[in-house]
Structures are given as C-alpha cells and as structure tokens.
Design brief:
With about 725 residues, this protein is an alpha+beta fold. A six-stranded mixed β-sheet has the order 19-26-27-28-29-30, sandwiched between helices. It has a four-stranded parallel β-sheet with strand order 7-6-8-9, sandwiched between helices. Strand 1 and strand 2 (about 65-70) form a beta hairpin. Helix 3 (about 75-85) packs parallel to helix 6, helix 13 crosses helix 17 (about 555-575) and helix 15 (about 450-455) crosses helix 16.
Length: about 725
C-alpha cells in the first residue's frame, strides 16, 4: 500500500495494547491477518471500523480472473518518479534498490520491516518487481546469510521508502517524542519487531539494532549515526541519538558502543502508546481546495464539489483502488445553526456519519478536523449532507448510555431563535429594559409607545440603555447612539411585540384591543359581541402594543431568554461553525447511572489540536433558585462521560445574583481533580465580553477563550472569594 508504512500492527492477544494503538493511530479499518478467538473478539469490540470495500482483503478479484489491490498502491509514486526522473532522461540512473534474502536468515524479519519486500504476483495480481525494474530501473540485491548487511544508497529508493514517497505530514498532530536513533532489540523477539514497526509508523526515524548481530549491522549503524549527527539542531540543542528499547531490557552494554555521542534512552512500555508520549502523525498524499455548491432546497443542506488534481496515476485499476478522502468544510454552513458540516472526532460515530452525511453506511471515518470518506481513485466528485445538530447531540449522548430528546421548552427556545433570525438576533434581550418590558406585561396587557420607550431607556435604573452603547443588535454606524426607538422597532420587526389599537364598546363600555392586522371599520366587542362602526374612535388614537407570537404565552417562553443569553456567551468560547448547540433536552438512562432529568441547553465543540470533545450542559433561570436536585442530576450526567475523551462542564446561569447557599451547592458540581462548574449572572450574560464587568471587581481577565477559562474564573469569583471573605 502507498503509505502502508504508517499503518500499525495490532497484537490482539494484548487487548489493552491493541485498543490503545487503534486510538493512537486513528485506525480507519481492520484487516484480519490471523484466525482465533482473540481476533474475533477484537473485531467484535471495534464494529465501528468495518472493512469499507465490497470484497474482503487487500486484493480483490476482477472479472478477468485476476487480482488488483483494493487500496492505492506503490505503483502511483513509482509512476510519478518515472515521469519526473526517468522518462525522457537519456542519462537516467537506477532509482531503486530492492533486496532478497534467505527465509532462514535470523535477520529475515528485520529486513522485511526495514527494507520491505514485494508479495508474489500470484497473491496480489501485480508483478511489482517487474514494475520497478521497468519504471525506476530498479536493481535487485541479495543479502547473504551471515554476510554484512549493505548500507542503502541514499540516492536510491527502497521498497520501504517508495512506500512513503511524496507523502506529507499534516500539522494537526505534532509528535514531540520523534527522536531518531535505533531500536535496540532481539531479531527473533515478536514484541521488539512490533515495537520497531509501530514506532516507525508513528513517524520516528529508526534502524533496528540487535547487539547479537553487531558485526553484520555495524556498517549501517555507523552510517546512520553520522547521518543523525548531521541533522539540523532541535529546539533543545544539538541532535541526540535515541536508543529505544523494551523497558525490561537493559542496554548499558550497547550504550558504550556509541562513544562520545549524546544519547537518549527511551523505554518502550504500554503507557507510551497512550497518546501523551508518542503521537501518530496524520500523513496524506496531497491536498487541494474546491468550491462547493450548497443546496438547501430539500431541507437538509447538501454540498457537492469536484475532486481535482488528484495525486493518483490514471489507468492503474483506479476504479478498484481506494483511499480516504478527508473533507475539511472550512467555515461550514454560514449562519445555519440547526445543522453542521463539522463532525466531532468520535470514531464510534462512523456509522452515524456514513448514514447521515453520506449514502453508504460503512465508508465514513471520523478524523481530526475533517470527515474521511473511503472512495475510489477514479471518482471525480463527492456529495455530502449536513448533520442535524439535535440528531448529532442525541447520538453523542447515546454513546455514553443516555437517551436524549428535545423537550417542549427546547422546542420553544429553538423556534424563538429562528424567529429572531438566529442566536445573534437575540442580542436585544441583553438589554435589561427589554427584559423588563416583556416581564412587566402579561400577554393580554397592552402598553403605549411612550411607556415602552421609557422602560427600554431604563432611566434611573441600575442598567439604563446608556450602558449598552457598545451593543449592536442590527447594523448601525460605528460610534452612533443605540436609541430606544431603534430597539423597539427591532422588536416589532422580529415579532416580539405587535401593534394595535384600543377601542371602547358603545354597548358594554369596556375597552378591548385589536391588532393592526385585525382592525377594520366595523368591529365586534370581545366581551358582549356588539357590532359597531369603529371609524369615529380613530381620531387621536395612539398605537397600543402587546406581546406577540411565543411571547404571547403566559409561560414566559418556558424561561427561554436566560437560555438564549447563556448560549450566546458559551458560543463565543467556540466558533459555532465548528460546533453545535441545542436547546433543552430530556435525558433518560439507557444503561447509564443517571436519574431522569433535563438540561436547558447543550453546547458541543472540540478543543485545540488534541480534539477533545468539550460539552457544556446546565440550568438557566430568571429568578428561580438553583436546587440541590438540579446540581446532583447534572453532575451525574457529567460523570457519565469518560474523562479520557470528554471535558464536560456544568453551567448554572441566572439573571439575578446567586445566594450563598446556591454557591455552596453548585461548588459540588466540580470533579475531584477538575473544575467544571461555570456560574453566570446578568453581570456576565449582558456584556459582549463575558467578564467585562466582573473584571472590574475581581482580578480576572475580561475575556475567556474556553470553557476551562470560565470554570477557573467561576472558582476565582464565587468560590475563592467566599473563602477570602471568611465564609
């Protein structure tokens, strides 16, 4: 396989090690190379990594009774090298050395790992030896048993280097323990051979050194030592020589053979594969950009784009050969908060991604920063579907044994967000006067323009409109004043309020209200049904306004306003083009240890280059208190998510200050070793920068760039402050 050097070997008799390697190398599919109960059990435990091709195995039969590789093979870089260096070059030099040795040679497996070998034409359907001899003027070499192993010529490829030719390393994963050197082991030790292979698969430049065969390997070792010493200096200083080895195998005797060379001893044990030490790079064949067409006419957004400048040779059984197309959607779907093209890096969701984002269930692969699609090298275009945010969150909760579903309150809040034109369209609710205007009037109560203007202005109150001059609820000239008339017009435009007129019934003398849409020259009284001509009453009539739409209900939109303000602040921590949010959801146990409960919102995003999943859940209220039951239930939900992959934060937001008792309750939401409680009041919810006002009272930054920052700020403001005050 082209790039097969970067695939790990999984020894499934050690389940913990094999599982760690699957996670470290972000394995896309499993190829079964041996039989047995351990293999079957391992495959059953990794059903999210199904073989994505129609036929099993690395080579598939053709209608011509032959075989072809199922995965892009080394013929592609071989042909590219031929085009660049051999073709039309009368002075072309041999470009590749390939080697042969006796199967009984004690170093045979070391040669196979280090130099590579071709499978037979009968096994794979391709005579690779003939291919490289023809295209690269390849030269065969025989390593004599007991003879000195020759030093590979640096100007020529080997099978092992041809395997990696033209490949590039993606910036998304950096390995800070990629020190070049030697793997010191035993040529007949299975663990040593697998360690050597997997370390090189992680991008570490190593040669195998068995002290028992130092006389045969010495020339190559000396050449490689000199090569390392000529490498550019690292950040830490001159390049050192690393001696990697099994932790239980002493190598002091080998260290003496390197004289004055600076050495680093690197123990290889199971924990080195935990993702915090050695890290496997993302290697790719090539990249490019494509302009996608977006179609939202069918409800769910669909993107289609052409695949140009593919790095694969034409005609090499391209329809049968496959690779992973990694699609990074860039900014994603602009202003579409109900769907996303960004797929969180959760490999267990591969089938979900395949069914929802593609049309074939087993071809999608979760990747850092992108979604991988196993596709044919002959395909010239691709189509993907956006994921529904609610469905994605439901699936993520399902992975930890929690059944999630939108609640009535969540549906109301989602509808309100759409009514306001998106989450940013809800900024007007940050203004205290706007919230007061809504809260002070029942749905059946009307108010005139003068009263509305006065309440929005908030003159004489703690938070007058003059405190919100940096708030932009719609486009206006920078530095211009935010006026109460503009705020009221915006609320009318968005349907928060509607205009109408008050009329007096000539019969029962009671006053009733008619909306502008329903007002006409002849009306019927709401109370007694008397019909009358309304025209005489229109003289000097002033407009009267009432709450409208969802705001026309007595339930105060199930407390949606504090939820919307909280989502706005949490959304600023992570670009919502790269994450998703949902409003209130009910949570029930499938096989998780949680009581039935509800969360007012879920915000999900990924953190930095390690791509840990960040989840924020919580309660958002206007004035109602936070109870011990609220804290206990959400803490149980947070505890359900495995700490090795998820960071879950529990948010409590309220539009009034928290009491001392509430602070003590919320403090219990923190984990044993991590802060995860986030507390927000109107002091934090109203400003553009979450701690803009809070920083004036406490020694903290006015901004936060992550949920972790907010949890630390919460501890400083609410928990540590209470200790300083002697509580």
């Amino acid at each position: 396989m082209w790039g097969g050097r970067y695939n790990p070997i999984l020894p499934v008799d050690d389940l913990g090690l094999a599982t760690a390697l699957v996670k470290l190398f972000r394995v896309d599919a499993l190829v079964q190379l041996s039989e047995g109960a351990a293999v079957d059990a391992f495959l059953a435990a990794h059903k999210h990594l199904p073989w994505p091709m129609m036929s099993n195995g690395l080579f598939v039969g053709t209608m011509r009774d032959g075989k072809v590789p199922a995965i892009v093979d080394i013929s592609h870089p071989a042909i590219r090298l031929y085009e660049e260096f051999i073709k039309n070059n009368p002075n072309a030099q041999p470009g590749l050395d390939f080697y042969d040795w006796e199967n009984a040679d004690p170093l045979a497996d070391v040669f196979l790992c280090s130099l590579g070998a071709f499978p037979s034409a009968e096994e794979c359907g391709v005579d690779y030896a003939a291919l490289v001899q023809t295209s690269l003027l390849g030269i065969g070499n025989v390593i004599q048993r007991e003879g000195v192993v020759p030093v590979p010529r640096v100007e020529r490829e080997t099978i092992a280097t041809l395997n990696c030719a033209y490949m590039q390393q993606h910036y998304a994963v950096q390995n800070h323990r990629d020190w070049p050197g030697f793997y010191v082991g035993e040529a007949n030790n299975f663990d040593d051979l697998v360690n050597f292979w997997n370390l090189r698969a992680a991008g570490i430049q190593l040669k195998f050194l068995d002290p028992l065969y130092a006389s045969r390997l010495g020339a190559g070792a000396r050449h490689w030592t000199a090569t390392i010493q000529q490498m550019p200096p690292t950040i830490q200083g001159p390049q050192h020589i690393a001696l990697w080895h099994r932790a239980e195998r002493p190598i002091e005797d080998v260290s003496r053979d390197f004289g004055d060379s600076e050495l680093i001893q690197c123990d290889v044990h199971e924990s080195i594969w935990n993702g915090h030490n050695v890290r496997a790079p993302i290697m790719y064949f090539g990249d490019g950009t494509a302009l996608a067409s977006v179609d939202e006419s069918g409800g769910a957004a669909t993107i289609s784009f052409a695949l140009t400048d593919k790095p694969f040779a034409e005609g090499r059984d391209a329809h049968e050969q496959h690779y992973v197309l990694s699609v990074n959607p860039g900014i994603g779907l602009y202003r579409n908060e109900q769907a996303t093209l960004h797929t969180p890096f959760i490999p267990e969701l591969n089938e979900f991604y395949g069914r929802k984002a593609h049309t074939i269930w087993n071809v999608a692969r979760s990747e850092p920063d992108s979604l991988g699609i196993v596709t044919s090298a002959a395909d010239n275009h691709e189509t993907l579907h956006a994921l529904n945010a609610n469905e994605l969150v439901i699936e993520i909760f399902g992975q930890v044994g929690i059944e999630a579903a939108p609640s009535k309150a969540g549906l109301i809040a989602s509808t309100l967000i759409r009514q306001m034109g998106g989450l940013d369209g809800c900024r007007a609710f940050r203004i205290a006067g706007v919230r007061t205007l809504i809260e002070n009037h029942k749905p059946h109560q009307s108010f005139d323009r003068s009263a509305a203007m006065q309440i929005i202005r908030g003159q004489g109150h703690d938070r007058p409109l003059s405190d919100y001059q940096e708030l932009y609820i719609e486009p206006r000239k920078v530095g211009s004043e935010l006026k109460n008339s503009s705020v009221l017009s915006y609320l009318l435009e968005k349907g928060v309020f509607r205009a109408g007129l008050k009329f007096d019934c000539p019969s029962c003398q009671l006053e009733f209200w008619r909306s502008l849409d329903d007002a006409r020259s002849r009306l019927e009284c709401d109370y007694c049904g008397h019909g009358f001509n309304a025209a005489p009453q229109l003289r000097d009539k002033a407009w009267a306004f009432r709450r409208s739409g969802l705001f026309g209900n007595d339930d105060h939109q199930e407390g949606a306003i504090p939820v919307l303000l909280t989502l706005q602040q949490l959304g600023r921590m992570h670009s919502m083009s790269h994450g998703v949010f949902t409003t209130a959801m009910t949570l029930k146990s499938k096989d998780a240890a949680i009581p039935d409960c509800e969360t007012d919102f879920v915000v999900m995003a990924e953190r930095g280059r390690d791509h840990r999943i960040q989840i924020a859940i919580g309660e958002a209220k206007t004035r109602k208190p936070i109870t011990a039951n609220d804290v206990a239930k959400l803490k149980a939900v947070a505890d359900t998510f495995p700490a090795d992959r998820y960071d879950v934060y529990v948010v409590f937001a309220r539009l009034t200050p928290f009491s001392a008792d509430e602070i003590e309750l919320i403090k219990q939401a923190n984990g044993k070793y991590a802060r995860r409680a986030i507390m927000l009041t109107e002091r934090e919810l109203e400003p553009y920068f979450v701690y803009e006002r809070t920083a004036k009272e406490f020694d903290i930054e006015r901004t936060a760039v992550s949920f972790e920052n907010m949890a630390i700020a919460t501890a400083r403001v609410f928990f540590e402050q209470r200790r300083r005050e002697g509580h």
